[in-house]
Amino acid sequence: MSKIECTDKTINPLKVKGGGYHCTKTSEGCANCYAERLNLRDGFYAWANGIPFDDRDVEFEVDLSVFDKLPKTVPKRVFVQSMGDMFHGRNNPVDNNIAIFQAISDNPIHTYIILTKRPKRMRIFMRGLMRYEGIVDWGIDPYDTVKWIPDNLHLGVTAENQACADERIPILLDTPAAIRFVSIEPMLGPVDISQYLYCSGDEYRTPYLDWIIAGGESGPGARPMSPYWAESIRDQCKTADVAFFFKQNGVWIPDYLELPGGSNQWRRQRGQYRWVGTGDESVCMFKESKKAAGRLLDGQEYNEYPEVE
Predict the structure, then answer these.
(1) pTM of whole model > 0.70?
(2) Rg (CA), the chain
(3) Low-confidence residues of the chain: pLDDT under 70
(4) What's the rounded Cα separation, in Å, for the pair 159 and 165?
């Protein structure tokens, strides 16, 4: 099982030599990285190495045995490299990623979800796979540019705010992929992605986004997400008929959702609240727990997945 709501399994084939994981923080969404928090607990997790996700040099290696642990007959949605970024680049030879993508090709029963904050490196890598026949044997004609990338490979970028969305999404749309998705988590402000969701009136439709995931931040230091921000993303997806998955509210809830026992008033007195948003969409958020905040958005769960043509 996976604790990541939109997946069934998580695997981490890219590791630091000697054990554990590593990455380098690259944008605002990385500030409270859960993977770093786990990796620092070397006295608690046997696999952790205690190395912070900073700018130090480490050597990476590939552990393909993680693919052997996946079911052989039951399809699963598999998140690849939840403890880092496959396209970290630094000290990660391209042969490592080629080996991982070959393992993905050799286990076609599952759907593989790969997320990055470094779309330029992902674009270079994916274009290289298309250009050089035989690097990875997909069992598909490499000159059929429509179907060469298999349908069970979902590629995405994180866009925690508008700046990251406008920087990363156009690069994703320029990357060979069967399914392209965006994860707006942690959602740190309002984001307008409507221009990237569909292109109407084109005889030959240009690439567009197939799937949007959104959610608030959880864990120590979690920053609040206004429900209005998430509802806006939901509405943008609905207008464009794009699959929308809402993962979580994080650890903050709006004050209009009163908790039992007058606990909102208690939190206000203790200072465990924060105003987010502006104007008519300004809302007071109370700090609670991930469980209490839950997964409901405007009273409903959203668990949509993209359709593969």
Answers:
(1) yes
(2) 20
(3) 1-2, 130-148, 199-206, 258-271, 309
(4) 5
CA 76, distance to chain mean position in Å, is: 17
Amino acid at 209: L
Residue 306 lies in a domain: no
Structural domain harbouring 109: 9-293
For residue 299, being part of any structural domain is answered with: no
Residue 44: what pLDDT?
75
At residue 72, the pLDDT reads: 93
Q: What is the pLDDT of residue 207?
A: 72
Helix, strand, coil share (%) of the chain residues, nearest 5: 30, 15, 55
Give CA 39 to chain center in angstroms.
19
- How many structural domains are present in the chain? 1
Structure tokens at 36: 């770093």
Mean pLDDT for the chain overall: 87
179 pairs with which residues across the strands? 154
For residue 1, tell me if it sits in a domain: no
Q: Check residue 283 and give its pLDDT.
A: 93
In the chain, what is the greatest distance between 2 CA atoms, to the nearest angstrom? 65
Report cis status (omega within 30 of 0) of the bond before 186: yes
**Is residue 232 situated within a structural domain?**
yes
Alpha-carbon distance of 161 to 164, in angstroms, equals 6
